[in-house]
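Problem 12. The chain below contains 163 residues. Write out its predicted structure in token notation.
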Amino acid sequence: MKRLVFLMIFTSVFFQAQEIEDLQEGYFFSESSKNFFRVDIKKPYDYYKVSSCAEDSPFIRAQFEGGDAAFNRELFRYISAYVDKEIYVVNGTFFLQMEIDKEGRVTSLNIIPKVENSDGFLRDLKFAVRKIKKNWTPSKCNNVPVDSKIRIRLNFVTESIDV
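Solution.
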């Protein structure tokens, strides 16, 4: 009995350590029957200071509820759920640009670069990001909430195999 409990504790710690290791690397994996899908969500994000905020004014950037690692997990979860890996074979870097209003809501979402025949993929990626329900804490300039912009770099690698 003691060996069984020890074995269960050991395996649970190992699996959690693997998840933490993957998060530290910035890589997330998703598999289906034909495609192997990897998304590298680069940190740190690019935060743009509001132009109306003076250089000497204290500026606090927007924060996702739970931090950047929580946003990465949510983003990958929804990308895995709503971006169809059977249809799209995506390789390369895309930039997710978000505008966050004074209330902490994502008001504008854009994905660049625009590439040929990518309308469906970009539509699915935008849909996945919009499904994230948690709010952001807005940026603040002199402790006053202000609109802000964030840019996140996503590197996609897809490997296809014949089954």
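Discussion. The chain is about 30% helix and 35% strand. Students who got a different answer should revisit the alignment rule from Section 12.3.
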